[in-house]
Design a protein that fits this description.
5-stranded antiparallel sheet, Glutamine Phosphoribosylpyrophosphate, subunit 1, domain 1, alpha+beta
């Protein structure tokens, strides 16, 4: 569960995500960071779905992955993500039906451009090469209008507006399809060479304080 917007271009990647983490029953659990720069691999990792899987994968990258560049990381991601996924399903059986997609965006020294890959749980985390694209999860009402707005108004303002649209749309879908979106909008702009990454908080949702209070109330219930 997350909102994710990204623009993949040969010499730049722009990623936006919200910061709300929810329980399986869709209650606010915490605020978190969902965009993870990995400078020594020239890569940024992000995703939607099970946050614990992405956290475990990030720790695995730092502790066990011996690589230089995104290609080597992607080569080993499928098998490692499957192992982590199985472990979490055994440890968290109430979340077994959650789907997750992990994204890697990085600069390829071989191709001299940015490349992107999606690893979807529904496909066994097989690496899927992404074309140069503007992507959105959950889907937007009008992708062409969104692209036009990006060209006219620039990335920061438009991505915030689009994520507000995603959040508003979630109030109109069935509970079984609802995606938790809230907290802040985090924006990451990545360029190379050399690999440079600017990650910032660019927006706070109007109900962020209410979500934070719900997080604190849940902690009180558990104590």
């Amino acid at each position: 569960m997350s909102a994710l917007l990204f623009i993949l271009e040969p010499q730049q990647v722009v990623i936006a995500s919200d910061s709300l983490c929810c329980t399986v029953d869709r209650r606010p659990l915490s605020f978190t960071s969902k965009i993870h720069p990995i400078p020594h691999l020239g890569t940024v990792m992000c995703g939607t779905g099970r946050s614990s899987l992405m956290t475990h994968w990030l720790c695995t990258i730092y502790e066990n992955v011996i690589a230089r560049g995104i290609e080597a990381l992607v080569d080993m991601a499928e098998s490692q993500l499957r192992v982590i996924d199985q472990h979490l399903k055994e440890a968290q059986p109430d979340a077994v039906d959650l789907t997750t997609t992990v994204y890697h965006f990085g600069y390829s020294r071989t191709e001299e451009r940015f490349v992107g890959y999606a690893h979807r749980s529904v496909s066994g985390y097989r690496a899927e090469r992404l074309a140069d694209v503007f992507g959105a999860k959950p889907a937007l009402r009008d992708m062409q209008a969104a692209v036009d707005a990006l060209l006219t108004n620039g990335a920061t303002t438009t991505l915030v507006d689009l994520m507000e649209e995603q959040k508003d749309t979630q109030t109109k879908v069935p509970a079984s399809e609802w995606v938790g979106i809230g907290g802040e909008v985090h924006l990451c702009v990545v360029r190379a060479p050399p690999f440079t990454c600017r990650l910032s908080v660019c927006h706070e949702f109007a109900d962020a304080a209410d979500a934070w209070q719900a997080i604190l109330d849940r902690l009180d219930e558990a104590s």
